[in-house]
Amino acid sequence: MGPEPSNPAEASSRTPHANPPRRRFGWLLLLLVIALLGGLVWYVTAGKQASGERAGPPRGRPPATVGVATVEQRDFPVEFDALGTVTPIATAAVRAQVSGVLQQVLYSEGQLVRRGQLLAVLDPRPFENALMQASGQLQRDEAQLDNARVTERRYRQLLAQDSIAQQEVDTQVALVRQLEGTVNVDRAAVKSAQLNLEFSRITAPIAGRIGLRTVDVGNLVGPSDTGGLVTITQVDPIDVVFAVPQDTVPALRDALSGGGPLAVTAFDRARSAPLASGRFLALDNLVDTQTGTVRAKARFENAQTRLFPNQFVNVRLKLRTIEGATAVPVAAVRNGADGPFVYVLNAEKRSVALRKVERGLSSQGRTLILSGVKAGEQVITEGADRLSDGASVRLPGSGGRGDGAGKGARDGSRGQPGSGGKGDGSKSEASKGDGSKGDGGKGNGSKSDGSQRGERRAASGG
After folding, report:
1. Strands (E), 59-170
2. What's the pLDDT at 259?
3. Closest-CA residue to 82 (of 255, 368, 313)
4. pTM for the full predicted model
5. For residues 337 and 169, what is the distance between their CA atoms, to the nearest angstrom?
6. Which of 130, 303, 326, 347 suits 450 as a labelling partner, its CA being 20 to 30 A distant?
7. How far apart are CA 84 and CA 315, in angstroms?
8. Residue 19's pLDDT is what?
9. 54 Cβ neighbours under 8 A, 6+ residues apart
10. Where in the chain are the domains?
11. Residue 188: its pLDDT value, please?
12. Into which CATH architecture does domain 124-199 fall?
């Protein structure tokens, strides 16, 4: 042994030089552990891949559940749908035609009134006084006219006896004509006074529904009032104005040339309930250059007032009917790179086949098929996004297939009690999945959901 250090400082300066070999040994040990772990991971992964290759390719996904519909042969209506606005045939703002104080209001707001019904009364006394004055002036001038005519006859007798000058006769004749003109003016004044007296009683100019009134009893009203007394809107019958695309105008004109009325139906905003039925009335004479449409009008009987002025409704115009047409639901027709097609169901094989079709018009949720399918075939309407040509499908409400051999579990899942189908009372083995066997279930003619549970487990990876 060597000599010990004489002081602590010299010993502390020599101690750090002994640590580096220990640190290098620790790093080497860590690298060795990592290499062993990596090799183990590679071995396990390679083993799983090899076992997967020996087991063969994975099975496909289970059949998709779809909805089907039958191809129908029926009368197909050719119809046109549009958005329309309910427009009253006539709207009248009731105003006083003479100035006066409103004395009575004889209507209720929102009331249905008939034409000529009394609505309000103005103070009639000023108009009665004016009528009396005009009548008195007429009576005075008529008396003067009668007197002038008597004098004219007397002058003519004297002129025949050569007892009076011709000038006096002519002067009397001119006076008679002057008084006749005055009497005519007085008669016109009397009629005007009578008319003003009638105008003091305000009546409905049209039949319809009254709106909210703007004046009350005691207000001074006149012809210059902007809002008037009230507004009346005719509601029965009533019109609906809608726009027709310019490409549809030729077909519409051809339908109109047939001579018969075209049926029009108004629906609510959701197109779920019809509001009223009417007839096509008129087509405008020009195309709107901004929208490329032509305005059209239909008339409806509105006795139940289900159509309200300025209401938005959906209009369905029936142009014609194609008899014996082949039609499918709109959801059955799909668009592909080669054009429209449908999936046709093979009920025996529980599979579908892609078939190209020639599509026509669509109306009321149905599409006209010109070629490609026949009446009585079944087409897919729901779940077609997951399908391809030849794919297997499953219909709603149908369970797994049981044939007495007791097919229970599928795709490696453990056997569950078999479903549907009549058996012979014997037990059978399920398909082998993970090395276990499953009973197919006792075949006693009863139905269970065994195969469906097996499929769900298989789809989730067993």
Report:
1. 64-65, 67-70, 72-88, 91-94, 100-105, 112-113, 118-122
2. 76
3. 313
4. 0.58
5. 109
6. 347
7. 6
8. 55
9. none
10. 124-199, 399-462
11. 96
12. Orthogonal Bundle (1.10)
